[in-house]
Specification:
The structure is a homodimer of 110-residue chains. Chain A has two domains: 76 residues, Winged helix-like DNA-binding domain superfamily/Winged helix DNA-binding domain (Arc Repressor Mutant, subunit A, Orthogonal Bundle), CATH 1.10.10.10; 33 residues. Chain A contains five helices and three strands. Chain A has a three-stranded antiparallel sheet. In chain A, β2 and β3 form a beta hairpin. The longest helix of chain A has 31 residues. Chains A and B meet through α1, α2 and α5 of A and α1, α2 and α5 of B. The first copy, chain A, binds a DNA duplex (30 and 30 nucleotides) through α3 and α4. Chains A, B: InterPro entries: ArsR-like_HTH, HTH_ArsR_DNA-bd_dom, HTH_MetalResp_TranReg, WH-like_DNA-bd_sf, WH_DNA-bd_sf.
DNA sequence: TATACATATCGCCATGAGACGATTTGTTAT
DNA sequence: ATAACAAATCGTCTCATGGCGATATGTATA
């Protein structure tokens, strides 16, 4: 199944567009962890977390390794952290902008 | 309305998780363009493109400027291009991995 | 002020995504 | 072989999203 550059971009970005999945990525950090550790860390059903992990895996964000009856996941490329840093930078710009707008309102109206 | 760091991340990444919106970003590049230029460049209804532009704008990805009866959009921060470059790097890893797997199959089966 | 133009918004439909519990698959331990 | 455990998959529900045409808003032009 062939997929355009935009298709791949969208696939990766979609995988990262869900809050729970972002938290999973955050939770993993640089570590390799099994599903049995991840599930209890979130207040979600095992099936839900498993699905999220699959999505991240299929997008090429996570690497999966099976060891006995456990399945272990870890972040595949440290590039991902670069990506999140850039997103945070853009988000920060956004937050500061809102803060400025809020201050302007407070000082003139309040 | 307060929003967590993860919330902001998800908002920005969601805005970028749609193929059409990625193409809009691509189409804009470093230029400022009006909706009347963007709409005909895509095979979509005007209302559809307008919605996509709003989503990108609300996520803080695009800047909006009204000039007479036109509305002009441009990419707000050059950081966005960094972001896309990182995504592409991850995507490339993914594509190369698939290619290797495909070659292995072809040489053993074909 | 009427008309045409540019864009946003609304209402609707079809599809996709996330959540869950139940079930299946696969592995170790008894 | 059976039981216990770990994780994936299935079926179903609900809500979000993308698409469209129609309509509303707002601006320049006649």
């Amino acid at each position: 199944m062939r997929r355009s550059a935009t298709g791949w971009r969208a696939r990766i970005l979609s995988a990262l567009s869900d809050p729970t999945r972002l938290e999973i990525v955050e939770f993993l950090g640089g570590e390799e962890r099994c599903v049995c550790e991840i599930v209890p860390a979130f207040g979600r059903a095992q099936s839900t977390i498993s699905k999220h992990l699959s999505i991240l895996h299929e997008a090429g964000v996570l690497e999966r390794r099976i060891d006995g009856k456990r399945t272990l996941y870890r972040i595949k490329s440290p590039r991902l952290f670069d990506l999140l840093r850039v997103v945070d930078a853009i988000a920060l710009d956004e937050i500061n902008e809102l803060k400025k707008a809020e201050e302007a309102l407070t000082s003139s109206v309040g």
